[in-house]
Write a structure and sequence with these properties.
The chain has about 180 residues and is of the alpha/beta class. Helices cover about 35% and strands about 15% of the residues. The strands form two sheets. The protein has a five-stranded parallel beta sheet, with helices on both faces. The radius of gyration is 16 Å and the shape is globular. The two termini are about 20 Å apart.
Length: about 180
């Protein structure tokens, strides 16, 4: 599902509500019939959120950032899997460089390396195509399409006219 709209209409706010990071003004957020805040719900383990802020440490390398993220989120990730994920994002040869020396697009691709098949069913992505070059946009588009084809779900915001394969939907917020 592609969510689009002008700046300030609530795209990011909606994603934060869907993640449980902000309260909804009304109603309940349910996942498989349970409120997302219910401790017996597997919602938190089944969703992955990537916001505007990349949640990366500038002093750490791309590899260290990816390994730390997996450890904090409680997701299994071997060093070889992390290196493979970074290589898939076009970061082979840059895995050990501190993030502070990478370009904005390379930092974004480091954050996108968190998107691995099978780790979470629902991906909530806020402007994932920002700062990416054409090759990286196409690589991400294919990755998101593959996730959906394998039974996953993606809700993403984007100002770019990027369409995933299959029967995705696009909704515009605001007037």
């Amino acid at each position: 599902l592609h969510l689009e709209g002008a700046n300030g209409v609530g795209k990011t706010s909606l994603l934060r509500i869907l993640c449980g990071l902000a309260p909804a003004a009304a109603g309940d957020m349910l996942w498989r019939g349970l409120p997302i805040s219910d401790p017996s719900s597997d919602y938190r383990s089944q969703r992955l959120f990537m916001g505007h802020q990349l949640a990366l440490k500038e002093e750490l390398s791309a590899l260290e950032n990816l390994m730390c993220d997996a450890a904090i989120s409680g997701r299994a990730l071997t060093r070889d899997e992390a290196l493979s994920a970074l290589a898939e994002q076009g970061l082979a040869g840059r895995e050990h460089l501190p993030l502070k020396v990478l370009s904005q697009g390379q930092k974004r691709r480091c954050a996108l390396a968190r998107l691995r098949p099978g780790q979470a069913r629902l991906w909530l992505l806020d402007e994932p195509f920002v700062a990416l070059d054409a090759a990286a946009v196409e690589r991400l588009r294919l990755q998101l399409s593959r996730h959906v084809a394998l039974g996953g779900a993606v809700l993403y915001t984007s100002h770019q006219p990027v369409v995933l394969d299959g029967e995705g939907r696009s909704y515009r917020l605001g007037a």
